[in-house]
Structures are given as C-alpha cells and as structure tokens.
Amino acid sequence: MYKKTAVITGASSGIGMELAPMFAEKGYDLILTARRIEPLQKLADALHRMYGITANVIQMDLAQPYAGKALWNAICAIEPDIDVLVNNAGAGDSGDFASEAPEVIEGMIHLNIAALTSLTRHVLPGMIGRKRGKILNLASMVGFQPGGPGMAVYYATKSYVLSFSRAIRRELRGTGVSVTALCPGPTRTGFEEAAKAKNTRIYQGGMPMEARDVARAGYEGMQRRRGVVIPGVLNKLLAFAGSLPPSAIALEVNRFLLSERR
C-alpha cells in the first residue's frame, strides 16, 4: 500500500506543531524539522504512538546560509519521494530598520525566503515527475499590505512568500502539483514574544486566533488545492483593505498598529 510522506519545517511549536497530527491522523509518515530537538522528538514519539506512523526528526537551523540544500539532503537520506511540503518555519523582528541587528535581518531573510525557496525548488521535480504533490507555504495577512513600518523586513518577506506562491502555482497548472499560501493574521504561537511585538497595538488591541484553528484552515485549504487561505473574517477584510489604494494610508495605519501601546 502506497505510503504518503509530509515534511513540516518549524514543527516544534505553533502552527507547525498543530499541523503535524492532522497529517498523522490521515496516515502520512512525517519528517519534522526545527532548531529545538527536544520538543520535536517529543512530538514525533507521541504521533508514532497515537497513529502508528513513522515520524523522523531533523534538527537544523534554517536561518543559516544554504540551509535549504542541507535540509533537502537530509530529507533525501530518509525519503526522497515527498508528497507534501509544509514550509512553516519563519521568524520576525520589530523595531525601526536602522536599529535592527544586521545578523537578525539576514537570518530572517535566510529563513523566511531563502530556505523556503530552496526547499520548494528541490522538492518540485520529483512531484512533477510523479504528477502529484502539495506545497503549503506559510505567508501572512501582512503579505497583502504595502509595507510595515516597524516590521519592515518581516512584512517584505511575507509579501515575497505570497507572490512566489501565486506565481509558481500558475506555472504548475496541469502538473498535478498544487501550491497554497496560508495567510493568517495575529495568532497565539509565541511569535509575538520572539519578534518583540507582544506590546504592539496589533496584538494588544486585537483578538489573535488559536494556532490550531489556523492550522486546520491551512490543512483543509491545501487538501482542497486552494491558492490562498486567509483564516478569519476580520483577517480577510484587513487583507482586502491592505491591497487597496492609496498605499500611504495603509502605511500610516500599519505604523500605528506596530507601535507599542502606552
């Protein structure tokens, strides 16, 4: 009997951790990767016990240069025929661009853009050859915005993910391979603390979604081969509003939302 395999990056917490059991429940073997090995191994062991699937773990920091290629080599050593790739790993940082640490900026670009792009490129030839496959890229509602003063690099990276996903989805039409961009708004994942955005108005004044609800929306949208998934009615409205002119107004609104609440 044919056994399907899904790769999930950033699976040690948040949306990635919530996605893993959704695949395991449907019989997918898993290859889980993240920087932190302990929660990753704990998750893999639990899913193996609960669902009887094979769950392999790979410890790797995708914020390093050429990490995408290194991870692909490690994946191929386990199982080169991948049915689903979930590019979930990502990072953010808040503050004015001129004061951000250069190494933080470079790491964010490597993780949010370079590793995602590299992994997608490496997995696609096999999927196209087998005429089946699904890719789920974690973009963001902010990808629809003209920019995010106060989180300039993060917003830009998510705009890239959304644009990239839409473009290759069109290129892959008729191949049997689909690409879905998951575009959540604020979500309870611990991202806000890691990105130093916990005290901003967008988190303090909003109602963040639960990671499990976002993961479920992404999983179901990917299985239905949808192009873009925006969980939550309010997030859909904000994404639509952000794509409307004039962009100067959206930039001022975003600057306000990304400032700290006093």
Q: Can you tell me the number of structural domains?
A: 1
Fraction of residues in helices? 40-55%
Percentage of residues in strands: 5-15%
Largest sheet: 7 strands, parallel
Terminus-to-terminus distance: 59 Å
Strand arrangement within the widest β-sheet reads 3-2-1-4-5-6-9
CATH superfamily: NAD(P)-binding Rossmann-like Domain
Radius of gyration based on Cα positions: 18 Å
Give the low-pLDDT segments: none
Listing every helix as H and every strand as E from the N terminus to the C terminus, the arrangement reads EHEHEHEHEHEEHHEHEHH
Task: Find the structural class using helix and strand composition.
Answer: alpha/beta
CATH structural fold name: Rossmann fold
* Tally of DSSP helical segments: 10
Shape: globular
User: Mean pLDDT score, rounded?
Assistant: 92
Q: How many beta strands in the DSSP annotation?
A: 9
The assigned CATH architecture is 3-Layer(aba) Sandwich
- Class, according to the CATH hierarchy? Alpha Beta
Question: Main traits of this protein?
Answer:
single chain; 15% strand; 262 residues; globular; alpha/beta; 10 helices; two-stranded parallel sheet; Rossmann fold; seven-stranded parallel sheet
